[in-house]
Design a protein that fits this description.
495 residues; alpha+beta; Phosphorylase Kinase, domain 1; Transferase(Phosphotransferase), domain 1; six-stranded antiparallel sheet; 13% strand
Length: 495
């Protein structure tokens, strides 16, 4: 019996339709009642919702899928366990078909299409392996071709999630689909390994190319199917379909019976598939190989002309790290030879510094000299009134003479803003002072001077007698004027 019916309400979502149902759960299409956004709701089947172990297993699947953030893995937005024991996940709503559905429609897929799909599936599975999650049920039914032209890995219902610490694998055969299980996985005694998924992806790729499972004639006979899976290698495609031997080399290593002969990681298999795809494209361009696209086949996953090499991040040993280089340093330029822009300051100058409480204190948009621990003195100039300009030093400035004489490894930045306003008031005052000095010098040069030791003639007001003299009277002569002078007194008495 289904958990929900169309029209039912789940929290603040409206259930629209049942998308699919399987052994491990049901998937519904739901719509947000306020925003209208649509999602997929997966309800995990539990035989007994009161059994704590089964609920923990369902939650482990939900949390494991939620932790994977990759383009080629279905995205999980929310998860929870209800009080009645029902575990659910809210995921993205995929539009498209599973690879199993495409095979039912197309019969088989073209070689380039199948290899491209396997490459994207390998990247998604490698992302899961990085989170210590082994899918254990990789098959065409769990590889989804979604718009726009992307392969997504779905259904982690029986995945082995190592971070959760659930012991659900050792001693239990049958955890997976026998037609795609590795020989050691069928035996049920080997611990989960990434090579489980490598083998299953190799069988899935072969099925995409040929259109049928290599042991399609014995799928109903479990005993014979397990015998062939553990002992018999499928016939090479170079003989069955006249494909290049390089295709057999890649597939043969993926589905090797001995786990040590397979690829060591899903990343290594993905790179081998990518090199195979690039080689096929080169052969087609050189007209040495003809690859025909099947009629009605959807667009090839990804872009056939785009190089998509996936490289997982690898930690760098501490001794291999380069020597630390100061992140910001300034040097002094000659006057009027360069400026620093706000973008340069933002790119090279830290705008905060640690405080005594363990936090950071913002320093503002433009750093000031007094905010650092050391100041750099400008180089001597030619004594002109212009100020020296400052610019950010390139990375090579660490070996400059200025950096070598610095007392500390990383001096603080004392850069100045590039745009400085002209002090017009000071300029006007200087001009006025110069004009005043010039006038004083000119007056001193042209002023009249007498003989040395002679006093300048004083201007005396006219006497009363002269003022009362008639206008026609003439001035007294020099003799008369001399007679009116006071007698001269000489030392020694009269002679």
């Amino acid at each position: 019996m289904n958990t929900f019916k169309p029209g039912d309400r789940f929290q603040h979502y409206m259930v629209e339709a049942l998308i699919g149902s399987g052994f491990h759960g049901e998937v519904y299409s739901i719509r947000h009642m306020h925003t209208g956004d649509r999602f997929a709701l997966k309800v995990i089947h539990l035989a007994s919702r009161g059994e704590a172990r089964r609920v923990a297993r369902a939650l482990a699947e939900a949390k494991g899928t939620y932790s994977i953030q990759h383009t080629n893995v279905i995205e999980v937005f929310d998860l929870n366990c209800e009080p009645n024991g029902m575990v659910w996940m809210r995921t993205e709503l995929l539009r498209g078909h599973t690879i199993e559905g495409l095979l039912a429609i197309q019969g088989r897929l073209s070689l380039l299409w199948a290899v491209s799909a396997a490459i994207e599936a390998a990247w998604g599975l490698h992302a899961a392996h990085e989170r210590q999650i082994i899918h254990r049920d990789v098959k065409p039914a769990n590889l989804f071709y979604a718009d726009p032209r992307t392969i997504k890995v779905i259904d982690f219902s029986i995945a082995k999630i190592f971070p959760e610490g659930l012991d659900t694998t050792v001693g239990r055969a049958g955890m997976g689909t026998p037609a795609y299980m590795a020989p050691e996985q069928l035996e049920g005694i080997a611990p989960p390994d990434v090579r489980f998924d490598i083998y299953a992806l190799g069988i899935s790729l072969r099925e995409m190319i040929t259109g049928k499972h290599p042991w399609a004639d014995v799928l109903d006979d479990t005993a014979e199917l397990m015998r062939r899976q553990m002992q018999v290698m499928p016939p090479p495609l170079s003989e069955a379909m006249r494909l290049p031997r390089r295709v057999d080399d890649v597939l043969g290593r993926a589905i090797a019976k001995d786990p040590s002969h397979r690829y060591a990681s899903m990343m290594e298999m993905g790179r081998a598939l990518h090199e195979l795809r690039a080689w096929l494209l080169d052969e087609v361009r050189a007209r040495r190989l003809v690859l025909r696209r099947r009629m009605g086949e959807p667009a090839c996953p990804g872009d056939a002309d785009m190089e998509r090499v996936y490289s997982a991040p690898e930690p760098t040993p501490a001794h291999a790290l380069p020597a630390p280089v100061p992140s910001s340093r300034v040097i002094v330029d000659e006057p009027r030879t360069g400026t620093v822009t706000p973008s340069d300051i933002a790119a090279t100058v830290p705008l905060s510094k640690p405080n005594s409480l363990g936090g950071t204190v913002p320093l503002g948009d433009v750093p000031r000299a007094d905010r650092g621990t050391e100041r750099l003195r400008p180089a001597p100039t030619d004594h002109r009134p212009s100020r020296p300009t400052w610019r950010a030093a390139p990375p090579a400035a660490a070996s400059s003479p200025l950096a070598a004489t610095s007392p500390r490894a990383t001096p603080a930045v004392t850069a100045r803003p590039a745009t400085q306003r002209i002090p017009w008031g000071a300029v006007a005052f200087a001009v006025l002072l110069a004009a005043t000095a010039s006038l004083a010098i000119v007056w001193w040069l042209v002023a009249p001077r007498g003989a040395p030791g002679e006093r300048s003639p004083a201007v005396r007001p006219p006497s009363t007698a002269s003022a009362s003299a008639p206008a026609g009277a003439s001035a007294p002569s020099a003799t008369a004027a001399a007679s009116h002078r006071a007698p001269t007194v000489r030392r020694g008495g009269p002679r």
